[in-house]
Fold this protein.
Amino acid sequence: MSNEIKIEKKASEVIQPESTEDARQAIREKKDLSGADLKEIELQNLTAVGAILRKTDLTDADLSHGLLVNPNFYRATVHGTAIHHTIFLGGDLVRTSFKGADLSDSALVGVDAQQASFEGANLRNAGIISSDLQDANFTDANLTNARLAALNVTGADFSGAETTGSRAYQVDWSTAKVPPAPIPDPFVKLPTWAWSALIGGLLGVLGVIIYALVRRQKHADS
């Protein structure tokens, strides 16, 4: 409840960008766009660190081909939004609604997506790694050829999800509210230490990318 109180704003307090460029600048400067109306806005190729988009309406917007590091999308409305070929590195996606969004060929790495909704979303060829999907809704989502690794799916609902060609590693489907049918096949068989090394190496590379982006952002702001 305390989080809800902090997020709520009066209409006069909501920062409402007047143009696409204003929105890009505001996001890059980490301005608090909580509650803003960004429906149908075109934000392709956006690179941003720490974007604040809590409860923001991004219905039918275009966030494709982007790189978002530690964004805050808490309870944002992202219905029908184009987010394909976009990378999320960390971030708060708790209770975010991606209903009908296109997340194909995207990567969600280290995100907190508890109680998020991916109902009817297109996650074809997407990668979801080291993320918390507790109580998330994947009803009728398209997970064809998706790559899923080190996920918490406790209480998640995969009713009607399409998983043809998908692969999974370190995902306990027995904890899901409704596991996908069929269960995604495992990745190629490798010793546990090898998978740990691969995932650790990937996270290390991502850490370097985040560090470089943060340094560049600080330099741009100074």
The radius of gyration is 17 Å. The chain has one domain: 2-221. The longest helix spans residues 192-221.
